[in-house]
Amino acid sequence: MKIWVDADACPGVIKDILYRAADRAQVHLTLIANQMLRVPPSPWIRAIQVPSGFDVADQRIAQEAEAGDLVITADVPLAAQVIAKGAHVLDPRGELLDADNIQERLTMRNFMEGLRGSGVETGGPAAFSAADRRAFANRLDGLLHRKAC
Questions:
Q1: Which DSSP helix (H) or strand (E) runs through 78?
Q2: Which of 66, 109, 117, 130 could be cross-linked to 76 through a Cys-Cys bond (beta carbons 3.0 to 4.6 Å apart)?
Q3: What's the sign of the alpha-carbon dihedral 7, 13, 17, 22?
Q4: How confident is the model at residue 149 (pLDDT cuts 50, 70, 90)?
Q5: For residue 82, how many C-alpha atoms fall within 13 Å in the half-sphere facing its CB?
Q6: Which helix (H) or strand (E) holds 48?
Q7: Distance of CA 30 to CAs 22, 86, 117, 128, 135, Å?
Q8: Angle between helices 76-84 and 56-64 (to 10 degrees)
Q9: Per residue in 107-142, pLDDT tens?
């Protein structure tokens, strides 16, 4: 298993959790972003900077991720792409996305995008919380534990 991170919008606290987990579990962690990222020195962690542009980082992750890999992203269309390849998806709030729930998430995303496109103010996501951080850490630990068994 490799871990791929859609790092442009990933909260810093989630990246910190991932750095520690990659070293502890000795799992390759790759962060992909449009900007240069600093990552801790580790044989398990690397960052890749892709050119600026719409969905360039997403396209790279979709190209690289393989069945059994874990992708960290809040981007629902990217999640759908990698789930179709057999990868697992965990969003930064700790929700596991899979073949059973991704279509519902895509439908809701498209509906909300349609509302915003017609001028309806839908608001944004709730602020990232300590509960979100804990949920992510717990779910990640569970996934890494299953990989080790």
A1: helix 76-84
A2: 109
A3: positive
A4: low
A5: 32
A6: strand 45-49
A7: 10, 18, 34, 23, 21
A8: 20
A9: 777 677 777 778 877 777 788 999 999 999 999 999
